[in-house]
Every structure is written in C-alpha cells, then in structure tokens.
Amino acid sequence: MYSLTSNSEAARPFLTWQRIIDWSQEHYRIRTFAKDEKLPTRPGLVYLVQRGAVRLVGSAQVNATGNNASRLPRISPEEAFLGFVGAGQPFEIVAQSPFTLQSYAHVDQTSVLWMYWHDLDNWPHFRREVLDAFRYQHQRKLLWLSTLGQRRTIDRLLGFLTLLIEEYGEPSEQGYCLPFPLTHAQIGSAIGSTRVTVTRLMGKLRQRGMISTQGDNLLCIPTDSTLTRT
Amino acid sequence: MYSLTSNSEAARPFLTWQRIIDWSQEHYRIRTFAKDEKLPTRPGLVYLVQRGAVRLVGSAQVNATGNNASRLPRISPEEAFLGFVGAGQPFEIVAQSPFTLQSYAHVDQTSVLWMYWHDLDNWPHFRREVLDAFRYQHQRKLLWLSTLGQRRTIDRLLGFLTLLIEEYGEPSEQGYCLPFPLTHAQIGSAIGSTRVTVTRLMGKLRQRGMISTQGDNLLCIPTDSTLTRT
User: Fold this and answer.
1) Inter-chain residue contact B155 with A226, CB threshold 8 Å
2) pTM of the prediction?
C-alpha cells in the first residue's frame, strides 16, 4: 500500500505535528465536521486533515447540450467524486471556472485545520512535506486519469477501485478494504457512469472474484488480485 | 489564460533559469528529442522542459474483461493521453503498478533537462517554484477529473478541450488555439472514447460554434465561448 499517511507520520517528528495542532487550536483554526458537511474553504489557504477523511468533489459548469439557439453552454450541476484526503494529508481548493472544486467531511468527526501558506514558513521541514504530499497526490491523479481513459466502463470501474483501495485500503480477512463506504452513485460520478450501471458492473466484478464487500458495505480487493501481484 | 509558463517566467529571475541550463549542459543533463520520441525517464529525477512540449501518457494494465477462467486481469496496452508539459514546466514520472506513466516529445526539437531532487537544493528559490508548479498541475488535474466524471461523452469532450485550451491556448483570430496539433485518437484516449466518436462529436461542437480549427488542424475555442466569460 502506498499510504501517504503512514509514510509521512513515520517521517514526521511527532512533536511537529503536535505543535501544529496546538498552534491551530490557539489560533482557532481547527474545526470538526459531521459526515457530509461541506467545508467552507478559501483559495490561498492550505488545509490539513487531522482526523477522519475529506471527500473532494468537482462540479462541471460546461455542458455541450444546452439551448441550441445559444452558443453558451448552460449551467449543469453534475458533481464528480475526485478522491479522498486522509488523516495527516494536506489539501487546497483553488476555485477555477468553468469547474469548481469542493470538499466535504466524508466521515463523522472529521477534524480539519488550516493555515496560510506563509504560516508554513514557521515549520520549513513540514512545509517541504506538505509540498511533497502534493507531488504524490499529483502522481496518483495521473494514474487515475490513465484508468479513466479506458474505453470500457467496466475497465474504468476496476481501475478506479484498484487505485482507490491501493491508496486507502487497509488489510483485512477479505484482502484490502476501504475503511469507509462509497456509494455507487459516487463511484459513477467519478468514472463518467451512472449508479445503475455501476451496480450492474460491480455485480459482474464480484462474480469474477475481482472485488468483494465486507460488513457495512466496505469495498475490498482480494489478496490474490492485481494489487498483490505488484 | 492560466499559463504557468508565462507566470513562472515572469516570476523567475532570467539568470537562474540560464544558470540551470548552463549547469545541465556542463553535466550532460540536457537532450533534444524529435516529435513522438519517447523520453527515457527514471523515478527520482525531476525533468524540466526547456523548449517545445512533452506529452504525458498513461498505460493501464488492469482489465476486467480477461479470461474468465482466471481471476487475474490480463495485460492491456491501452494508452491514455494525460496532458502536456510546456516550456519552463517541470514533470516527474514515478512508475506505479498497475498503471505506468510515460512521456514523449510532442513537437520536434523538444529539449528537456533533468536533475536529482537534491540538485535543486542549489537553487532553493527555484526548488520552491518547481514544487509550486506541481501544486498547480495537481489542481488542474482535479479539474480534468471533474470533467471526466460527466456522463455524456460530448460533455467530457467539451470540458476536456476547454481545460486544455484554457491552459495552453494562445490568442489568435479564432479565439484561443492550442499551439500544437492533437489527434482525435489522442483526445479519445483521454476521455474514454474512440477516434470515431470523437470525430463525430467534434463535428457537432463545430456546428454549434463551440470549437473551431485553425490552419494545420489546431483546435480553437471562440472568444465568445465559456472561456472568456470567466
């Protein structure tokens, strides 16, 4: 597993992280969110997930199928799931037309702190780690784009689940499992498909033994699958 | 236009960039490539495009439609176009199974230099710029993922072209145009579609006045379109 969380927690002196949490509490720059609560983010700030997980979502406002009389694409509020930010990881939201990015607490009791980029100058070593985390996230998104370039929806689906579980999965009896649920609608929104199609194709993948589910609808990839052959 | 090239060239003292080129020549760490030549990249190195443009490509090796008798997905060499890296911009290639990333010279006379990350410690200000460039690229890829989450292929296509031209387009009589050609097969590989479908849908977008082409098959977005309403 390429878990940034564990890597960076291993590399990061515990004291720095504790000092940053103390700093954010002193400056009232930490807050806890309920499941699916929207995070009020602003460009220019860097956010750090202290506990829980954040869900990134993008909204397209470009649409080719608007009113034919007008050249201007109409507003379409289709939201795409863009990934998670786990504990210990940074994120930032830079609003850019014609697409906007948003973030939500994916699980209950998700705690997030924030600072200006120049605040990070107080902890130069940590600043470097944050930037390295963005490099890592960028590489992961390139892999994600690779799978979304596949023509067949079932290939995109399997590639997407593989990447997600590779990054966030935790070992279990079933193999590696996501530690939090993801709805079929959310999966569909990530791979350019619908909830109905995702449900049907997940059935196929399950039949072929390529994925499985555990307990409260947690997605797993068996240990004898692609993941563990790498 | 959100051109990183011009931003970073404006922000970067010309002398630093010249010193880096001199350094790479002294150390034989600069090379010029012909159009579509593959760049021999290695993880752990950071690459900088001095001139021309680099095309990033990803190959999926996960495939759900393999031999049903086996649980193991078979190898499928589907290549997806993942974007450009323009002059003045950095990139890195970190190989990661089950997807691999590759880079090609997109135009003739593309010149690329490379260094280890620790070499960048010689130019701390420039190091910071490189890391900021990756932050920027990461944000762009999130927007790109937003459009690939759209269900209709024509929406993905228009969103993709809009983002690409927004980032790399240059002003012209037609509006904003990509400075280098991109084939319909390459576009299809980025948005999970085929060359044939892309050709058909591009015809529709052209009819609706949402895109146009200039001279040697260069893609343009008219100035009264979404781009310039932002």
Assistant:
1) no
2) 0.88
